[in-house]
Amino acid sequence: MTSDFIFAIDSITFDENYHPSDNTRATTNFANLARGESRQQNLRNTLRMINNRFNALAHWDNPKGDRYSVELEIISVNMKIDHQGTENSFPAIEVLKTNIVDHHTNKRIEGVVGNNFSSYVRDYDFSVLLREHNKDQTQFSVPDDFGELHGNLFKSFINSDTYQQNFLKAPVICLSVSDNKIYHRTGNEHPILGVEYQPNESSLTEQYFNKMGLEVRYFMPPNSVAPLAFHFFGDLLRDYTDLELISTISTMESFQKIYRPEIYNANAAAGKCYQPSLKNLDHSLTQIVYDREERNTLAIEQGKFTEEHFIKPYQAILERWSAKYAA
User: N or C, which end of the chain has less CB nearby within 10 Å?
Assistant: First the structure.
């Protein structure tokens, strides 16, 4: 086996004509939106939401609110494994890349890579390994090495030649806040990211992403109703331009309004002390069909697929590689 895995990147445009590829993760939010009778209307409405939110945030020199549009690419990362002289490929990671079109200057501006984050190994960790670990326990706990393999695989990809040759900046991943934590508003406010919040304690997701080398900060952008979790390397407030940050906010806030309307399409904005709730009835629904229950079911199936086709066949290789990489 080589000292590192080899990563290969495929991309597909996410637009109103998007059809999930045969090898995409079945649990990905994009595939969920792009199925059924409402698929094209779903996609068209989602893109309209993103563009409207982008122009609302990028309001300077934009009197009609139509200067910009956002183009999205789904980036699939395949990991090649050399095992006993045979090279096998496994779909490791899926992220989203934003690109910004300025219709006043007719220029295309590179946005941010990351945004949404999907991973087969994360499905395995949360839907198989963690469930099995707690099956006979009276009190919830996590394995000592929980997330370490996944974290090392992710850091290996970010540090790889493949990543460096394809992307100019480190990724920013933007997720929902946790519904079992309390968030307190601070006095810090950024002109684009908005008001900063801090959680009362670290969540399991935050700890998991920390093993991927990512820090996290929570901001509620202007005219939003709930904070978003921004996971990043480096300095979130200084490493990215205003338009780059707006591309992430407009894209992921729109998706969260679809996925978690109880939080992100609530009719009342978060106060100084805020606890998100998926049981909040005071919210509005988008005109976009999304099957949340299907996604939860498929996550377990994807986790079992990972166990069968990746974890068990290559367990010894993965453990040796991960220990060596960490060292």
Answer: C
